[in-house]
Amino acid sequence: MRNVKVGVVQMSCTANKQENLDKAIVKVREAAAKGAQIVCLQELFTSLYFCDVEDYDNFELAEAIPGPSTDALSAVAKELGVVIIASLFEKRTEGLYHNTTAVLDADGAYLGKYRKMHIPDDPAFYEKFYFTPGDLGYKIFKTKFGKIGVLICWDQWYPEASRITALMGAEILFYPTAIGWATDQDEETNSDQYNAWQTIQRSHAVANGVPVVSVNRVGFEQDGAMKFWGGSFVTNGQGKILYLASHDKEETEVIDLDLSQADYFRKHWPFLRDRRIETYSPITKRFIDED
């Protein structure tokens, strides 16, 4: 067996950036005290989810990566001996911004960043106003406790992203995310949306034979019009739910993952072996038609 203890931090946020960072650090300490070796924070955890409106003032929330937040978290990672996955609003240069996740190793070293590839533009999720699509490609990070793949929120819906990241050698797929329900929706719609979100990610675990860790925020935002649905979860490489958070409470939980199971799952369900890669070139087309 090769076990890794993963910490999931599901929390609500305020409009105060420093307050949110301080709170996240407290939560990382709680996870480490419970034995966590890798701690994942939710998408854009230093702020409210500001993409509900197109407001130029919100660009002031962005920062360099590495920068102030990664510096603070690096010190914590080194002190506690934990890996930290930190999703931040990156200012790359004047007028160029990304939705980016930094990875800090257990000795405090900055291992690099992943820039969100798939950018939504839906009502209350106007991310294309703020974020340039990622240009670093899919990434894995060789941490003290294993090779991890990091994707971000909207990337969750794309099996291509998880497949490529797994093929690069990721032993765990992490998804910092921010998704919720419009509070004027009915419960059936809410349930259908959450189930679809969880199901697609569990399928990534099954298809690739690796655990998936999805970390969402909670709380009412957007003047009460949005309830971020929490529901953070962890699966093993067969899609089995090992941990499921509530829809309305902050939670800091540590889950023990056996990374050696990947070999078993991939031998008994040999999806990677049986891939017909020579038939897949059409997937690079926007749509397969005559034009």
TrEMBL record:
Keywords: Hydrolase. Residues 4-261 form the CN hydrolase domain. SUPFAM superfamilies: Carbon-nitrogen hydrolase. GO terms for biological process: putrescine biosynthetic process from arginine. InterPro entries: Aliph_Amidase/BUP, C-N_Hydrolase, C-N_Hydrolase_sf. It comes from Sphingobacterium paludis. It comes from the Bacteria. This is N-carbamoylputrescine amidase. CDD domains: CPA. One of its GO terms (molecular function) is N-carbamoylputrescine amidase activity.
